[in-house]
Specification:
Length: 317
């Protein structure tokens, strides 16, 4: 294929993309305006609630939860780190960043986990979804801001849109992997005791996939933080925009302060999500309950052969 043909194909593709975006802008403006309003309203509501509460209340709650689920050292570290965010005058920006991360990640997980379960239940011959997930993960994240800005405008809505796309692939991929890796003997055992489709899914496959699901949640959280920082160029607010403004004005000290705040919050959430995954993502008790006809089925224990019975203390075992 010569250079002219390649340039012509590229021009056709670019024109198709521009025309599609223009058609959406002309014919679906009300839809995207409504979506932008809902996303911005959700962001403002959650962020307003977090900033209304005094900073020391949020820090104490984080420390208590850290002490309960992770450990004393983590609780002290989280308390000091959040106090540092307040001392640097970045508490409002920190809460805005947390709001963007939590809301976007929850929306992504609400889609990615069910979709990952369905993908894990299908045949491995479906490669198109895997290729599409690879495409989403390898595409430079800046690209996702462009359609968001064109359709949703500048602000938190675009940041939530872009972060939602970035957070979907790891959770969806790891959920599907966990569902696929359910040992065959347990699947056959569920069929043998008469489990229906839903019991088979929620009592065998999903419990075995929990470690992989929690690993996907952790990765989605970390990627969300990275995307929220990048989304500062789209007027998302929070620490990402603080860094972007500091870079434009060459205010190195402000950029370093915002970077430290991002590191603190990222480490706190990373350790906390990892610990929750270790605590609630274990496979303990996966095979403890098998039901049949609404009643618990007793495990079948083979009877010992007479030749192996041993007499102890006058009793035959």
């Amino acid at each position: 294929m010569d250079g002219d043909a390649m340039a012509s194909m590229t021009e056709v593709f670019d024109g198709a993309v521009d025309n599609s975006l223009g058609w959406l802008t002309d014919h679906a403006t009300n839809v995207f305006n409504g979506l932008s309003y809902v996303l911005n309203a959700a962001f403002n509501g959650i962020n307003g609630s977090l900033t209304f509460v005094p900073w020391w209340v949020v820090a104490l709650v984080a420390a208590v939860c850290g002490w309960r689920f992770v450990g004393r050292t983590f609780a002290i570290t989280a308390l000091i780190g959040l106090w540092l965010c307040q001392a640097m005058g970045l508490w409002a920006e920190t809460m805005s960043t947390l709001t963007l991360v939590f809301s976007s990640t929850l929306l992504a997980l609400a889609f990615a986990i069910p979709a990952g379960v369905l993908l894990g239940l299908t045949s491995r011959s479906i490669k198109g979804v895997e290729v599409f997930l690879d495409f989403l993960q390898t595409m430079p994240p800046y690209i996702y801001l462009l359609p968001g800005i064109a359709l949703l405008g500048y602000g938190p809505a675009t940041a939530m849109w872009a972060t939602w796309i970035v957070a979907i692939p790891p959770a969806m991929r790891l959920t599907a992997h966990g569902v696929r890796m359910t040992p065959i003997q347990y699947r056959e055992l569920g069929t043998a005791v008469g489990m229906n489709v839903f019991d088979h899914l929620f009592k065998i496959r999903v419990p075995f996939a929990r470690p992989s699901i929690f690993a996907g949640i952790n990765q989605s959280l970390m990627l969300s933080f990275g995307m929220v920082v990048i989304a500062g160029i789209a007027g998302s607010g929070g620490l990402g925009q603080a860094i972007y403004d500091a870079v434009r004005k060459l205010e190195i000290d402000h950029a370093v302060n915002a970077g430290i705040a991002i590191v603190v919050v990222t480490i706190v959430l990373d350790r906390f999500s990892q610990r929750l995954g270790q605590r609630y993502g274990a496979r303990d008790g996966v095979t403890a309950r098998f039901t049949r006809g609404g009643r618990r089925a007793r495990p079948v224990i083979p009877e010992r052969s007479p030749s192996r019975r041993v007499r102890r203390g006058g009793r035959v075992l």
